[in-house]
Structure formats: C-alpha cells, structure tokens
Design goal:
The complex is a heterodimer of chains A (680) and B (426). Chain A is α/β, with parallel strands linked by helices and 680 residues long. Helix content of chain A is 63%, strand content 6%. Chain B is built from 20 helices and eight strands.
C-alpha cells in the first residue's frame, strides 16, 4: 500500500480517521491512482524545470574535472583554485531539497560517485563539517548492505583515524588506483575520467558559520593538488552573500561560476498549467480554495512543494468528506460507479444544490421520475457526468484562448497570469464581470494594430500546437474536421471553430495589408463576437454546472486551517469557549459567560479580561474563588480560605504566564501586567 | 628558484640555522611576514633540497591537538607510532610517545616541525605554545619547532612568560622583486624579455592597488587571452609601447572585475573569447543583489528595518494615526545628532517588530504560524540576525542586517515609501 508512504508527514490527522468507512465504501485504489498520477507528474515537472540548470551544472563539473587533467599553461595556472558553482535557487527553501536530491543523483549517475551534501545545521564546528564530509564521501563506497552496519564501520573508521583530509587523500588514492572495472559501483561511471572529482554540496550557504566555511576552504585549498575537490554552493538570496561571508583571501581560492535557477513564480505557473488547467484530472478546486492556496504561496512561502501539498490535502479532504466523490474519477469508472450507487447515495444526489436547480428546469413528469425512479436517475446521472466532462474539456482551451487575447492588454483588466483569469472564471460567469466588458472594448480598439494581430496569430498557433501535443486525440479530431465529417460532439465543433478563427484572423491580416479598412473592422468585430459567444457558451462558472459538487472541493476554511494555522487564535478560542475543544455538554454556555465547570485556566482567563493593564493578584483570587465556590456549592468564605483553591489558582495563573498573556511586573508587588489588549 | 634568489638574505639566515644538522639547533624559530611574502615556500624548498626530516603541520587543519600530535608522529616515526597515541591525547601523552619512539630511532639530524598559520595556536590550550617552544628539552631530542605567522611575536607572548624563540622577519617584496617572480611563470611560447615587459605593464596598473603576490599571479593568466590576441596580430615582439596601448582597456576592465573576483578567471576567459559586444552580458557576483521575497516577508523586513533604525520612542509619531503635531525637534535629544544609519542597526524585540508590521502592512493579517516561521526563515537567510541567544524563547531580539539600498528596492516593489517612515530622513 503506497498510501502511507506518500502521505507520511504531510497531514496532521491520523490515518485511522481516513480509513473510517463512509456509507459508500471508498475505493482507496482510486484515490491512490489519483495521487500517484499527480505525484509522478509533479516529480516529472520538477525535473523538467530544473533540467536546464542541472545540465549546465553537470557540464561544469565534467569540464572542471577534465581541465584538471590537461596540462596546458592556463589550466596549470588555475590548478590552485577550487572550482565552485554558485547555484542561486531563490528563497523558497523547502523546495530546494528536491533539487539537490536530483542533482546529487544525476552527478552520481553520470560524473562521479563521490558526492557529499552537507547542511548548515549539522555542521556547527569545523570538526563536524569535516566529519560529515568524510563520512559521506567515504560512505559512498562502503558496500550498501545494512545501513547500521555502514554507520558502524564509518564510526570505527573515525575512531581509529582522525578525520582530516589526509585520510581522505589516502582513501582516494587507494580508490583510484584500484582499476575501476573491478568495482561494481564505478563500472558505469566515467570511463573517460581517471580521477572522478569529489563534489561537496553546501545546501544552504547562508546558514553556515562563516568562520567554519573559511577554515574548511583554506584546508581544502591545501589539498587541491592531490584531491580533485569541487564545491557547489546552494544560495537562497543573492550571490553577493559569498562576498559577505568570505574575505578576499579566502574567496580568491575559489573559481566561482554562477548558475541561476528558474524563479519560483514561473515554477508555480507551470505547475498550475499542468496540474490544474487541464481536464486530465477530474478532481478540481473551487475558486476560494484556489485563492487560499495561491495566496499562501504568494504571501507566505513561495514554496511550490507546499502548494502541491495543499492540493493533495484538498484532494484527501474531498474524498474523505464527500461520499459522492466516488464519481470523481476517469470517465469509464465514473459511469460504472454511477450504476453501483446505493439508494442512500442517490438520495444524496437528489439533495445536491446543483441537482435541485437542474430538476426545477425539467417538466413535471420528469421531475417526478427523477425523484422516484432510481434507475432513471442513474441514467440521468450518467448523462450529467458526461456533460460535466465535456464542460471541462471545452473550458480549458477557451480559457487559454481568452488569456492569449487579453494578457497583452494595457493595465491587464483580466490579469497578467492565466491563474488570475481562471480565478475570475471560477468565481462567477465571466461575462458578467465589468473587467471582461472593458477588456472586450479595449480589444475592439486595439485590434487595429497589425503587429498585435500577427502576434496573436502566432500565439494561437502555439496554443494549437500545444494542445496538439498534449492531447493526442485532438490531432485525430482535426483530421476529422479536415475530412469535413461534422460531429455532433460539442468539443469537435469548438476545435473547428478555433481552426476557423485562425483562418479568419489570417484573412484579416491580408485585408489589413491591402488597406481595406472597413472590411477589416467588420471582420475584427465578427471575430470578437465569435470569441465572446465562445466564452459565453463554455466559460460559465463551474457552480452552474449540474453535479459540480462531485468534482469540486469547496471547503476553503479547512484548507486554510490546516495549512495556515493560527496558534494564538486557537489558544484564545480554547480559553474562551472550552466547549469547542472539550465537547463536554456541561461547558455549553451563552456567549461571554464563564461556566463554573470550565477548567481553572479558562475561568482565570475570563476574569483577567475584565482587568486593566495591571492586575491585583488578591482581587483576582477573590473573584476566582467566588466563581469556583458557586460551582461546587460551598460557602465562598470557606472556599476562599482553602489552601487547595489558592493552589489551583496559582497554577492557572502560571499557566497563563506560560502562554504569554501576563507577566510579573516590578512596578507593583503582588500585581501582574497584562500583555494583551481588549476586554471581553 | 626566483623566491630563493630574492630572499637570498633571509634564506641565508635560515640556512645558517639549518646548516649543522648533526648538532643540536635552536629549539624554536619564529618567522613572520605578511601574507605571500614567501615564508613557507622558502622554508619548504630549503628543507626539501637539504633533505632534512621535517613534519609540516597546518594549524588550520588541526581542529584538535590530537591531529597535530598525530601528524608530527606520523611524519617522524610512521603510522605505527601515531597509533600509539590514546584517544584525545594530552600533551604529556604526546611527549611520552615521542620519547619512546626517539629512543628507538634517535635523531641523526635535527628534526623540524614546521607549523603554518601559527597564530591559531594562541586559541589552543594555554600550555601548548610554551611547550612547543621548548619541545627539545621536553622530549630530549634534536628537534626544532619552526612557527610561521603573519603576526608579530609580541602578540603571541603569553602573560606567564615563555621561552623566547629566534625571530626572523620576511619583508614584503618590492616591485622589482615582484616583477622578477611573476616573469618566471611565463607562457612557454613567449620570449622571456617580452613576457617580462608584459608583466611590467600589468604591475604598473595593479601595483598601486594590490601587492599580494598570490593575487598578482592570478592576473597575468586571466589576461592571457587578450595578450595572446595581441601577440598574434603584432609583428614585433619588442614593441612595448604598442603592447601597452593594446592592453590598457583590458586592464582597466579587469581591475573592476577580475581583481575583486567578481568574475572567476574561467568566466573572464570565456568572456574575452566572446566578441566584445556580448561581454556586457556577464555581470559580477555583486551585480546580482535583487532578492525575490514573499509579500509578507517583504513587509516583515521593512518593519525590521524601521525598528532597527528608528528610536523606539518615535514609533508613536510614525505609526499612530492621530499623533498630533510632533516635530522632529520635540524629541530630538541633545546627543542624538548623529544619524542612526551611521551607528548601525539596533536590536529590537519581537513584539515591536510585529506591532510595526501590522501597522505597516495595508491589509488585515492573521497572526498565523507562517508569519512567525517567515521571521525565522529571514534569520536563516541572514537578512535578520538574532541578537539574543537561541535558547531564549521568551521575547527574542533581532537586528536587521540589510542595507539601505536593499530595503529601498524591496519597498519599491510593494509601493511603500520607506523614506517617509525613517527618523533620519525627517
């Protein structure tokens, strides 16, 4: 079962909760497939995006190790410098791990078996850094039997021989002297390289102690003639940090080359393009959830990995909370699942908002049928599911089409990025949006410019070819169209339209050249009206679609709660309304009233809200005993005196202090100061 | 060897120390001089040429004394002796093992321990340096410790007093000496004279800014491409005037980039191989200062900057809506005439940072966990520094570690006029 391995550490809630079977037993295989598909795609995407930079890095390492073996004048002169790649990755630190992992994998596959990556937090002192580097470099040749055993041998090794680079030197010489074909590890590595370089990757350069790094570089430069060392610095901010961290005397020992990776916003755009703006995955996010995920990305962390995790969370929640999500799968499976729906689920379908809207539009006889005849309902459901799929198939090409048209308008009325346009469309019908109308007006004026026309034409062509490559059956469709076999399916019709649109645009172009202005304008308006009609027929908001609840995940609050936790708010909620977390009926109260049965800390908290900046501990205790004694039916006087209650009070107060609501003050003895504002 | 020739006088004096290997020599020698003044090079060459037994030790590399002892024993008596040392050996362990070993194989010649970067010994155990200085007595062997340092001996002397080593000073190279040394590693295809005139031109430009031999050695080959280009085109090798005219623009450019290691020599070479028109595309390391940050991180950084450079009592003036009329003169203290930007950033507590953050950011922000985690990620990115100790969870203090230019660039991206909020610019 891949389930736990994929989600390990991703989610807070326990796996047992997920396995709780809902009325319709969830097909875990199905979710698994979903997940795996998405996961594989993400990984592929990541690799694809990093390909350029990784390739150039690999080239760099290869070149460096090969120039070492040359003996011409220039490379001899440079032999004393340690080749260093400064890899600028951007501030989205959580994403870097994946990049470094694939980088070291690639290096090991194609350049050198000796790669060690170190992180700042495990190298506080030079000794530790040295030890980590040695362990990792030499571990790569330890036979991969049991991990523990390998660790033991390396530990022994470090006990007997002190970790210094001379040890490494000896090891390396022994290693390279033994002819590579004998070793299974080296057999496929670098036939052309007699001495594979030793690559050391510093994952987070900024966090390293500069002192440690300087010393390490100084030591390494002493050995550079004997060891083909190479550094890769992972930099999150800007390359000038190297100069901030290393004095000139040290940085002059390095031969630094700069590599800049793709910015994270571009990265996100690709992920959204491939993962969300595609009919490939039946699972969808509604506008609000999208908004939450995107704003977490833009406002908080810039982390694509977290964004993908957010989608995964939404998917999991969707399948967990929505029983009808069994229908959210590939077309065939969905149609099959419809036939297997139980009466309870059919009842759920009848309760769906979108379905109710659909029913209202039907004639009375049909309405009765839908509510009473289960088999009829199943048939209708099949039809509706097909419609929904059709809607998605048309939605994305039209969205892209509209985006290409509007993305170059001045002031971007419909957004610069396609995700903004998508958000608008998800929210409500786009043609009701003012921005859309103004965009259309702008288009009608702008289109006069021939340049833009040609531009767009090329863009459309790109779009065409893109969809060509992504959906192989589109080519098939085009073939159909060219054979002028008209198909009743909407999708085909739409594709034809796109094709025709291109033609019209071409014609417009020609007419422009021949200076016939009025026909051009007519054509332009025609084309725009055509696009407008396309938008109106295909870009309606998903909420208007029947059965959209099956595919769309809507609970943005859950996603926000899980991904963007607010610890302070939760603490205050717990203190104000203990019932919220404890779920004990005795704690149910009206707003603003302290229940006597509440935990001590809640009572103390409520009482302290009524005080000013300084709180007299004695008064506070008095108030507390009154409340508590009322609860237990004791005489307040007695209660007040009781040692037991004052002990409870003191404990609650110190708990409040621990949570940061109050602190002791020197201004007045037996007073504490409030650290929060606002009363009840 | 050019170094030896030039350092003839000094090598002579060292030689006189090294000369009679069968007699006991002076127990310790202290050699000092600036970086790359040829100390270790001369010494190594001499020891090698004279085939004297010596143990080279770099103090940077010896993270623990154990490593130091081990290396000495290893190079004098072989690996077996080194393995006799117990785990985490003390000085007396070392002396014991050494005496044992040297009784088995007594010294026929003086043995030398050469310690590079000896200034680091000052941070080692207090007994190490005095013991090393009179190691000869301790181990009763003909051994001499040579300390190489960039710092004068006065800075070493422990206050408890110690044995005074023999002091030797290596002065810096003069311009003529530098030229002589640099001409030595010429490209084989040029005549010595021609290359030396080339070096002369180089030195003419760079000598005023840099006298470090190591740096200067890096230059001629970085300039190599331009040089070879010229050599191919020119007819007469002896025409130094023409050489100068051809090289001058290249040298000027190199001064800004190669010398500061803004661009590595490899890239510089590539750049010169490319046509002139493209070379503008390659920018040095410090040209990339732009950092892309998440929206709230930007505001956190701005808030941190304001908290660091504004006095806390002026916060009311900047961040309260109805602060009344408070002019700068009202809260200007007498001794506060100097600009805060000259004094550098001041530490501020987390509370103040957040208070400023909430008043600066234009939308309502929930105090979520990710806001706090952004602060700590700013710390790992070294844009903020934590002043208080890591263990202090309660009210941690920070400093803002970014420059004015940087913060101006950041605030421009979020349309925030930071200058209006800075006390110094009122």
């Amino acid at each position: 079962n891949l389930w736990p391995s994929i989600f390990q550490g991703c989610f807070v809630f326990k796996p047992s909760a997920k396995k709780k079977k809902t009325a319709l037993s969830l097909d875990f295989q199905q979710i698994n497939n979903h997940q795996q598909n998405m996961f594989c795609l993400c990984k592929a995407l990541q690799d694809e995006l990093n390909r350029n930079i990784l390739d150039s890095l690999l080239d760099f390492t290869r070149k460096c190790s090969s120039t070492r073996q040359h003996s011409d004048w220039a490379s001899q002169m440079r032999a004393s410098e340690i080749p260093t790649a400064a890899l600028v990755l951007g501030v989205n630190v959580p994403d870097h791990d994946m990049t470094f992992q694939s980088l070291s994998d690639l290096l090991q596959q194609s350049v050198t078996p000796h790669v060690a990556s170190v992180q700042a937090k495990e190298c506080g002192a030079l000794k530790h850094l040295m030890k980590r580097v040695l362990e990792r470099l030499m571990d790569t040749v330890v036979d991969d039997e049991d991990e523990e055993e390998a660790e033991q041998t390396s530990a022994q090794l470090n006990k007997s021989v002190h970790c210094s680079l001379s040890t490494l030197c000896a090891w390396y010489n022994a290693k390279t002297k033994v002819s590579p074909p004998g070793k299974k590890r080296c057999s496929h590595v670098g036939d052309d390289l007699q001495s594979p370089p030793l690559v050391i990757i510093f994952k987070d350069l900024e966090a390293f102690n500069p002192r440690v790094l300087q010393d390490f570089i100084l030591i390494c430069s002493r050995y550079i003639e004997r060891l083909p060392l190479m550094f890769i610095f992972g930099i999150a901010t800007s390359p000038s940090t190297i100069q901030h961290m290393l004095p000139h005397s040290v940085s002059s020992l390095l031969c630094i080359e700069l590599f800049q990776s793709l910015s994270c916003t571009q990265h996100l755009a690709t992920v959204i393009d491939k993962l969300i703006l595609t009919p490939q995955f039946p699972f969808k996010l509604n506008g609000k959830v999208m908004q939450v995920l995107i704003s977490i990305f833009l406002y908080h962390d810039f982390s694509v990995r977290n964004f993908i995790k957010g989608i995964q969370l939404a998917l999991l929640e969707h399948f967990h909370s929505q029983p009808l999500s069994v229908l959210c799968c590939k077309k065939k499976a969905a149609l099959l699942n419809v036939m297997h729906l139980g009466p309870q689920d059919l009842e759920r379908i009848r309760q769906l908002q979108s379905f109710k809207r659909y029913v209202e539009k039907q004639d009375p006889q049909e309405q009765v049928n839908l509510f009473t005849d289960d088999t009829h309902l199943k048939e209708v459901c099949q039809k509706l599911i097909k419609n929904l799929r059709q809607y998605h198939k048309n939605y994305y090409p039209i969205l892209r089409c509209l985006h290409t048209l509007t993305s170059s308008l001045p002031r971007y009325p419909l957004g610069k990025q396609i995700r903004e346009l998508h958000l608008i469309c998800l929210d409500k019908n786009i043609w009701e949006n003012e921005d859309y109308q103004s965009a259309m007006k702008l288009l009608k004026m702008l289109a006069k410019d021939q340049l833009i026309l040609e531009d767009m034409l090329s863009k459309f062509k790109q779009l065409d070819s893109k969809s060509d490559s992504s959906t192989p059956y589109f080519a098939f469709t085009l073939g159909y169209v060219e054979d002028s076999i008209t198909s009743p399916v909407k999708n085909l019709q739409k594709k034809t339209d796109l094709f025709q649109l291109q033609k019209t645009l071409l014609e417009m172009n020609e007419s422009r050249r021949s200076k016939k202005l009025s026909p051009f304008e007519a054509l332009r308006n025609e084309a725009l009206e055509f696009i407008d009609s396309l938008v109106k027929s295909h870009l309606s908001a998903p909420e208007s679609q029947t059965l959209n609840e099956v595919c769309y995940y809507t609970s943005s609050a859950t996603v926000r709660r899980h991904l963007n936790a607010t610890p302070r708010t939760s603490i205050q909620a717990a203190l104000n309304i203990p019932y919220y977390y404890l779920q004990n009926d005795r704690l149910k109260t009206e707003d603003g009233i302290v229940s006597n049965a509440a935990p001590d800390i809640c009572i103390v908290y409520k009482l302290h809200l009524e005080c000013g900046r300084l709180i007299n501990l004695y008064d506070w205790l008095e108030a507390y005993s009154t409340v508590v004694s009322a609860a237990e039916g004791n005489d307040p006087e007695l209660m007040f005196l009781s040692l037991f209650s004052s002990a409870r009070f003191i404990r609650a107060v110190s708990e409040l202090e621990f949570l940061g609501f109050i602190k002791s003050t020197k201004q007045k003895t037996d007073h504490v100061a409030r650290l929060t504002w606002g009363g009840c | 060897d050019p170094h030896l020739n030039i350092m003839y006088m000094y090598s002579h004096s060292i030689l006189s120390c090294l000369q009679r290997p069968h007699q006991y020599s002076y127990p310790s020698i202290f050699i000092y001089g600036h970086r790359s003044s040829g100390k270790s090079h001369v010494l190594h060459v001499l020891l090698k040429e004279l085939e004297l037994p010596h143990a080279p030790v770099s103090c940077v590399e010896c993270v623990s004394v154990a490593l130091l002892f081990e290396q000495v024993l290893l190079s004098f008596f072989g690996a077996d002796a080194a393995s006799l040392l117990p785990r985490s050996p003390s000085l007396s362990d070392f002396v014991r093992v050494y005496r044992n070993q040297c009784s088995q194989s007594p010294a026929e010649q003086t043995r030398y321990i050469v310690m590079e970067k000896a200034e680091l010994l000052r941070d080692a155990d207090a007994n190490l340096l005095p013991a090393l200085l009179r190691l000869q007595e301790l181990v009763e062997d003909n051994v001499t410790v040579i300390l190489l340092s960039e710092i004068v001996w006065d800075k070493f002397r422990p206050n408890t007093g110690c044995f005074e080593p023999l002091l030797l000073h290596f002065p810096d190279y003069s311009k003529g000496e530098l030229q002589h040394i640099l001409s030595h590693d010429r490209h084989p295809s040029y005549s010595a004279e021609f290359y030396s005139s080339y070096i002369n031109i180089l030195l003419g430009v760079f000598y005023s800014v840099c006298r470090d031999l190591r740096e200067l050695r890096h230059l001629p080959h970085a300039m190599n491409v331009a040089f070879t280009c010229f050599c191919v085109s020119s007819v007469k090798e002896t025409d130094t005037h023409k050489l100068w005219r051809n090289m001058e623009p290249h040298l000027k450019k190199a001064m800004q980039t190669v010398y500061l290691r803004e661009v590595s020599s490899l890239q510089w070479e590539k750049m010169q191989q490319m046509e002139e028109k493209e070379s503008g595309a390659l920018r040095g390391l410090s040209a990339h200062t732009h950092v892309e940050l998440p929206y709230y991180s930007k505001f956190l950084l701005i808030a941190a900057y304001l908290a660091s450079y504004n006095p806390a009592r002026t916060d009311k003036r900047f961040f309260l809506k109805h602060h009344g009329k408070i002019r700068k003169t009202n809260f200007l203290k007498k001794n506060e005439k100097t600009s805060n930007h000259l004094l550098g950033p001041k530490p501020f507590p987390l509370d103040r940072l957040l208070a400023i953050f909430y008043s600066v950011v234009d939308s309502r922000v929930a105090p979520t966990a990710s806001i706090f985690s952004q602060i700590s990620s700013l710390v790992t990115l070294q844009l903020l520094t934590q002043v208080s100790h890591d263990d202090q969870l309660d009210a941690p203090k920070y400093k803002c570690a970014v420059s004015m230019d940087f913060i101006c660039a950041i605030s421009r991206t979020v349309n925030f006029e930071i200058v209006n909020y800075l006390y110094d610019f009122l």
